[in-house]
Amino acid sequence: MKNTDLNFEYKYGFSMPEKHVFKSRKGIDEDVVRQISSLKKEPSWMTAFRLKAYKVFRNKQMPVWGADLSKIDFNDIYYYIKPTEKQVNSWEDLPKEIKDTYDKIGVPEAEKKFLAGVSAQYESEVVYESIQKELTRQGVIFCDMDTGLRKYPEIVKKYFGTVISLYDNKFASLNSSVWSGGSFVYVPNGVKVTLPLQAYFRINAQNFGQFERTLIIAEEDSFVHYVEGCTAPIYTTSSLHAAVVEIIVKKNARVRYTTVQNWSKNVYNLVTKRSKVYENGVMEWVDCNIGSGVTMKYPSCYLVGDGARGEVLSIAYAGDSQHQDAGAKMIHLAPNTTSRIISKSISSKGGRTSYRGLVQVSPGAKNAKVYVTCDALIIDEKSRSDTYPDMRIKEKEVDIQHEATVEKLGEEKLFYLASRGINKTEAEGLLVNGFIDPVTKEIPLEYSIELNRLINLEMEGSVG
Fold it and tell me: In the 3-class helix/strand/coil scheme, how is 31-76 assigned residue by residue?
């Protein structure tokens, strides 16, 4: 998986000396899968789950739609790296090279801003975790997935793999066989977590596959906001990120899941994210994709309860050597369900964005309400944007709205701003920031500022 076009500026492209206590051999087979499960001292049912998933992965075909995945070599990947001997709860107890890495991307500062909890994953394992005592008192569980399996096996076994089956797609099958790390969140009945839970995922090694697994269960009348950020250094060889996120939203509960993904351009970002939403529950995905060479990601809501609501707010930016194939899926399976998809994409410097969406209203899902809008902004003549909407409406009593726009960064708008004394670079930034504002205003302030800054940095020199 070679990527030699690395001539771009990337804030988190630094790499630290690679140190670890264990590293699997390259490639994947049953022995590697068994070794991962054995090292983690997992129960037999999880080992069996992994092995079954590996067989499915081996037999499933690669996707023949979307981005070009032909350069992925599954035999040229390290599937498990253990960077430290044990997880720590004190920042100062981390090895220096890991601490320095997370200092650079702002993990300590984020915790100082009174986030409810912070979890940091480096390579395959969560290495640092902190949670406020108040959350523990309320019965909220926020830990890494491995700890969740060890400490709360009954809950994990009940829900693990129930939203995203190990048969779902090739990369979900791969994750199911070699998953490591990720987050486990459980919010009891009636508990409102007022501050975000936050996770960071960092790839530091070359030719590495990161396969975190996140499971969030929000019991009735609860609320939680989970925020994840992702970074990786720049290498001439590519890395693979294939995560799985499963979310269960019970009756009258609400979950918001925010992602700001800024992987370097040598990363294949192939992620399966899905929620199951019960009666009057609300699921909100806020999905921002700036980095990676290839992204294929379609956050989904299965609206299974009467009155359930789902929302996806999405931003994708594709620059030189990037293909962002992103979108959303809304599956209406019950009456009076509501979904909203707002997608904003920007392509420049020859980059390509694709919106790929599915809305399905099943028989019996009466009074379903659907709103979809896909807006694409093309900065220059070299860039490209595509829209692939799929609407499958199998019920008559529904309200469906769909609209899509494609526009270029108009010279007349730039001229108008120039006439007001605004230079060209600033004018371009203002127009782009205005274009994505409906989504960025839904992101925590520090993330929206960083998102705007990163997009402006990527766009420098794009026009003219």
Answer: HHHHHHHHHCCCCHHHHHHHHHHHHHHHHCCCCCCCCCCCCCCHHH
